[in-house]
UniProtKB/TrEMBL annotation:
The keyword Signal applies. This is SurA N-terminal domain-containing protein. Keywords: Signal. Residues 1-29 form the signal peptide. It comes from the Bacteria. The keyword Signal applies.
Amino acid sequence: MSTVLKRFSLVGVAVALLATGCATGPAKASSAAIVGGQSIGLSTVQDRTVKVLKKEPAAQQMQDQGKLDGVSRLVLADEITHKIAEYAAQRENITVDETKVYDAVQEKGGPEAAAKQSEQDETTIYRRQRDVLVMGELAKRNLSTLEVVIDFFQVKDPKEAKEKAAEVTADPSKMSRFVQEAPRTTGGQQASASNQKVRVTENPSLVHTMLWGVKPGTVVAFPADEQQSSWMVALVKERNTVSPVPGEDDLAERIDPRLLAAFGLRIAQFLAADLPVEVNPRYGVWDPTDATVVGNAGERAGFVGVPATKNKS
């Protein structure tokens, strides 16, 4: 599953023309989005989009062809993710060594090379690298000690997964029936369980998923594998801190840095779960599953829902 922490190729991506006209929301007409009461200005997103169009030939070519959508949403998602990372760093008292930020950018050939074929430019790339280091630190602090307890089941059809997740959100008592009715795997095993304890060290394929990014009481649905051949629907019941298993002390050093950052993003999302994210309708809606902005709710890569008896996050 891709996240905005990964660099993207502009080939095949429809490029957004700069937004025009009157905003219908959020409340501040000059905002592209509002995160926890903090505004991300329309001008910020527009200016960054222009820079991407100027520096990426593929983006310019698509604009010339009159294609819409894409880059401005990625830029806005980057701005939203930055707000989330910034909030998480403040909550966890994380400070980043600026020398490491500078060195990381230089290792990629300098700011211009590091920002190539991405929504970043030579100025924002340093901020992005700072956010990645924050995510890495959050991941290291939780990798060996975070455990969630879930009820879950798997299905093959993404539409069915999202619909059943919505049903559980509306009525959590349905979860037990769905767990019992879940189809068996090709090996004859039941693809479901109640009160299942899950740790990322024992379930590395789930490292990037929303299991780690939500509060207890939240229902999530997402692809259970990269091929999206199976979807998991889970009700997160508990979130616990446990003792690390012997031999996991250096685990963070042995994991792909991109996966570590993806896991850290989920921790940041959990820490910022009480910050509402409002996206100006001209850009679309926020998709927490992929940490990006999509055109409408139907395009979200997964499902995140909180039962009415719980506090919305």
